[in-house]
Amino acid sequence: MTKEELFKLMNEHPVMYVATNDNGQPHVRGILMYKADEEGIVFHTGVTKDLYRQLVADPRAEVCFSCGKYQIRVEGKFELVEDRALKEEIVNHPSRQFLQPWRAQQGDEAFFAFLQVFRMRHGKAHAWCMEDNFKPKEYVIL
User: Fold this and answer.
1) Which residues, given as ranges, of the chain have pLDDT below 70?
2) Domain total for the chain?
3) Which of 89, 87, 94, 114 is nearest to 102 (CA)?
4) CATH code of the domain in which 32 resides
5) Span 30-70, pLDDT tens digits
6) Is residue 12 part of a domain?
7) Domain assignment present for 56
8) Is residue 66 part of a domain?
9) Does the pTM of the predicted model rise above 0.90?
């Protein structure tokens, strides 16, 4: 599967499961990805969340998408993105309208201090389906 095909599937199925490490204890949770493209896999969380704390302490992670007959797993490192323009883009995107009332209630400075954005660049991706179950894994660098 090509990089472009992987991005298309991830964007069509934006719920991803993120596996992190917290002092040797693995943690997995489902979250709503913002987007996946040549710039990386992007999502947001809150500064008070365990996910934020875990990725700041150890940015290595693996994400998994269930995309119809395919499962896509991507391993790599997340970087914290300090980009107000990207945060504005996320908050104003039609898929993120649920953030608007919170922004209005908190005020911009408090809201944008809370909202944290992570990006995984150059992750190592593998697509799996039942037909390929016993074939050797083929990886694509995103």
Assistant:
1) none
2) 1
3) 114
4) 2.30.110.10
5) 999 999 999 999 999 999 999 999 999 999 999 999 999 99
6) yes
7) yes
8) yes
9) yes
